[in-house]
Amino acid sequence: MVSRPQQFDVMVLPNLYGNIVGNLAVGLVGGPGIVPGESYSNDIAVFESGARHAFATAAGRNIANPTAMILTSANLLKHLNLNLHAQRIENAVYKVIKSGKFNRFFNPEFTPFLIK
């Protein structure tokens, strides 16, 4: 997976292996603060960061990146068929990322820049 991630379109794994592979994949694309996640069953949908135990060492240091949770909220809105609102949030996040002004760590200017 690390050397050729493009070989996979979908992976279906039991919980433990799903967490391991999910955390590995998150590391490939920028870190735990970047990737949104969701889990579905027949009756329930859970929306959370794509990485488990995401960046616990950032607690209290004001450096955690909120992008994953912001994109997760957009996925929740899509799930609720509020697509226009989800698209507005996603477009704002992508605009901030494309600006190149912010790296994978949180910057106190991130949220005001996102709201613009």
TrEMBL record:
Residues 1-101 form the Isopropylmalate dehydrogenase-like domain. The lineage of its organism: Eukaryota, Metazoa, Spiralia, Gnathifera, Rotifera. Keywords: Tricarboxylic acid cycle. It comes from Brachionus plicatilis (Marine rotifer). It comes from the Eukaryota. InterPro entries: IsoCit/isopropylmalate_DH_CS, IsoPropMal-DH-like_dom. Belongs to the isocitrate and isopropylmalate dehydrogenases family. GO terms for biological process: isocitrate metabolic process; tricarboxylic acid cycle. One of its GO terms (cellular component) is mitochondrion. GO terms for molecular function: magnesium ion binding; NAD binding; oxidoreductase activity, acting on the CH-OH group of donors, NAD or NADP as acceptor. The keyword Transport does not apply. This is Isocitrate dehydrogenase [NAD] subunit mitochondrial isoform X2.
